[in-house]
Amino acid sequence: MRPRAEKSLNQASVRCAAVNEFTWGNSKSRLSPRMSVRMKDLARDLGVSVVTISKVLRNHPDIGEATRLRVQNRIKELDFRPNAVARSLVTGRSYLVGLIVPDLLHPFFAEVAQSLSGALRKAGYYLIISASEEDPALEEREVEQLLARRLDAVLLASARSTVELFFRIEKSKTPYILIDRNFPGINSNFVGTNDELAGELATEHLIKSGCKQVAHIRGPENSPGMGRLAGYMKALGRAGLHLHEGYVASGQMVDKESRQCGFDAMRQLLKLKPRPDGVFCFNDPLAMGAMDCILDAGLRIPEDIAVIGCGNLHYDASLRIPLSSIDQNSRRIGEEAARITLAILEAKTPPPAESVVLQPTLIVRASTLRPANRRAAPAKKTAPAKRA
Question: What's 195-329+361-382's CATH class?
Answer without folding.
Answer: alpha beta
